[in-house]
Predict the 3D structure of the following.
Amino acid sequence: MKVQMNKKKTILIVDDVEINRTILAEIFKDEYEIMEACNGVQAMEIINSKLEISAVLLDLLMPEMDGLQVLEEMNRSKKINRIPVFLITAADSEKKLTEGYNLGAIDVIRKPFMPHFLKCRISNVVELYAHRNQLEIIVKEQVERLDRLNQSMIETLAAVIEFRDGESGEHVKRISGLTSILMKEVSDTYPEYHLPESEIDKISRSSTLHDVGKISIPDSILNKPGRLTKEEFEVMKQHTTKGCEILQTIPDIMDEGIYKYSYDICRHHHERWDGKGYPDGLSGNEISIWAQVVSVADVYDALTSERCYKKAFSHDTAVQMIVDGECGAFNPKILEVFTKVADRIKK
Amino acid sequence: MDLLEELKAKDVNVEEAIERFLGNASLYEKMLMKFLDLMNDMAVDTDFDCNEYDDIIEKTHAIKGAAGNLSINPIYEAYTEIVNLLRAKQPEQAKLILEKILPVQNDIIDCIKKYHK
């Protein structure tokens, strides 16, 4: 393995015959930093290192690990999508060449080498890949920025509602954290409720908007210190459906997935497993698992927080009350998971 | 006569090879010396096993590639044919070509050896 350090783009030459490597190095040394490997194993060490490789010139027939095996490895690690690979070959193995192309090789370098054509072809592809990789980075950064902006708008909106409710804005953050812990555990424990991590992240973020409809509830009811009358409670219940109406007017501030979860959580986080919840009176698994999880998180946080009409319960008391069914009926599977993660929630 | 002149007389396309090394004649000469090592490591004789010759394909393939890049045309052309015949499962015919090229090959190798420092 031979390494030269400078700021030029780097080309990796992989060939077991030193003469071939030397000629290629001579051709490219003025424009590129050159790294050399004399077999596939050495090549993969370099490709998998932190070094930025701009192109690989790869011999097919080599000892220890041949060119096709290197390509297979690069496919497995997805490096093949970012690094152009040129096959070094004589025109005597069409079958291997076809396999090479099928594994993602970009072009073929025929022996004996023709320096001028080689320089042009490889430089063009290296520049093209560099440009494409750069564009991908820019797009990814923009998407992440937009995502952060959207999330901060959602959090701001949720926090505004919290302040009106006499809360500090911490409630929605706690709900998001609780939802994330519970949802991950439910997903890992029960195959029927399994969701990819990216979806759980969306659910956790969406949970912050569960009470957005409270903005439509009059102060006299929202901040009433005593028990609500039947009529007042009917008004209070409307925060679920009013929340959905609000979300329908602002679908553009969130992506489709977040909107779908937010809407569902907003509407159904007061449904109950036994069908005695509101607004739709859904029961059992008619209620989405994410709405069920937010429901438990919301009840736990309400119990352990001080409100204008009650003192805060301790963690242990709150857990016991929920498990004992004092705060409504919940999915037994969620309760089991809730008990399991209770210590983590306390922290 | 120097090494390059002698090789020209033996049908080695020296101009083409030096062009391949971007005009660097001394690097070309250095690689000719490396070619001696390669021919030593990859030496193939006519007595190879006609039923089991995968390693011979690898060796002749390596010689062909290097000889082509150094424009040692007699060796390059003969080994191109040998590799093709071996891949076509005709080892006996490959041996006939090998027999013919070995004296030419030895002559070129001896010539390079003469200048080996």
User: Anything to note?
Assistant: DSSP finds six helices and no strands in chain B. Helices of chain B lie at 3-9, 14-20, 25-41, 54-69, 73-87, 91-114. Chain B has a mean pLDDT of 92. The interface with chain A takes residues 19-22, 24, 27, 31, 34-35, 38, 58, 61-62, 64-66, 68-71, 76, 80, 83-84, 87 of chain B (CB under 8 Å).
